TrEMBL record:
Transmembrane segments: none annotated. GO terms for molecular function: thioredoxin peroxidase activity. InterPro entries: AhpC/TSA, Peroxiredoxin, Peroxiredoxin_AhpC-typ, Peroxiredoxin_C, Thioredoxin-like_sf, Thioredoxin_domain. Belongs to the peroxiredoxin family. AhpC/Prx1 subfamily. One of its GO terms (cellular component) is cytosol. This is Thioredoxin peroxidase. The active site is at C51 (cysteine sulfenic acid (-soh) intermediate). Thiol-specific peroxidase that catalyzes the reduction of hydrogen peroxide and organic hydroperoxides to water and alcohols, respectively. Plays a role in cell protection against oxidative stress by detoxifying peroxides. It is found in: Cytoplasm. Coiled coil: none annotated. GO terms for biological process: cell redox homeostasis; cellular response to stress; hydrogen peroxide catabolic process; response to oxidative stress. Residues 3-170 form the Thioredoxin domain. Keywords: Cytoplasm, Disulfide bond, Oxidoreductase, Peroxidase, Redox-active center.
Length: 207
């Protein structure tokens, strides 16, 4: 697995199901996230078990993410036709319903390989060849600022995705860094020795 934090997010053009349900033969990441923040999140397969809970959880936060200027793209190795079938399956039947973000079809596994998260199998719970449960947060310049990968049985907390974007935007706006456990509205820290001392004097016991 490669580390992409601090590097340009690999671009890709693949078939996809768009947020409005349109089947697109060519969805280009760079075109669709230009000037925006973005979340590119990978999951192993459609019509599985942990995955639908994550995709629905992401959709439940899509209004908040849109307010923050964030474009969301889900990616797995399934075809856009399978994505569409899963999207058209009700949640009480194991589907994800009409999620309001793009689902990209990485049928040739090129995206998973470019992002360094194609499973090799081995001791992991993942079968070889699927995308790992990975999340990439990308800034407005197209640079990866956060990369988190879970093993297959461990579902992600989508509130943490929102928190990390809040933190990134706070840093960009204020120039202050975000200490452990920081949430929007909390005190930040000046990135110098005095700033660390001041912050810890008032907050160390609460960390």
């Amino acid at each position: 697995m490669s580390v992409l934090v601090g590097k340009k997010a690999p671009d890709f053009t693949v078939p996809a199901v768009l947020a409005d349900g349109t089947l697109a033969d060519e969805f280009n990441l760079a075109e669709n996230i230009k000037g925006k923040y973005a979340v590119v999140f990978f999951y192993p397969l459609d019509f599985t078990f942990v995955c639908p809970s994550e995709l629905i959880a992401m959709d439940n936060r899509i209004d908040k993410l849109k307010e923050m200027g964030v474009e969301v793209v889900g990616v797995s190795i399934d075809s856009h036709f399978t994505h569409n079938a899963w999207r058209n399956t009700p949640t009480d039947k194991g589907g994800i319903g009409q999620v309001r973000y793009t689902l990209a079809a990485d049928m040739e596994h090129s995206i998973a390989k470019a992002y360094g998260i194609e499973s090799e199998g081995g001791d992991s719970y993942y079968p070889a060849g699927v995308a790992m449960r990975a999340t990439f947060i990308i800034d407005q310049k197209g640079v990866v600022r956060s990369q988190i990968v879970n093993d297959e049985p461990l579902g992600r907390n989508m509130d943490e995705v929102v928190r990390l974007i809040d933190g990134l935007q706070f840093f960009e706006e204020n120039g202050q860094v975000c200490p452990a456990g920081w949430n929007k509205g909390d005190e930040g820290m000046k990135a110098d020795s005095d700033g660390v001392a001041t912050y810890l004097a008032g907050n160390a016991a609460k960390l």
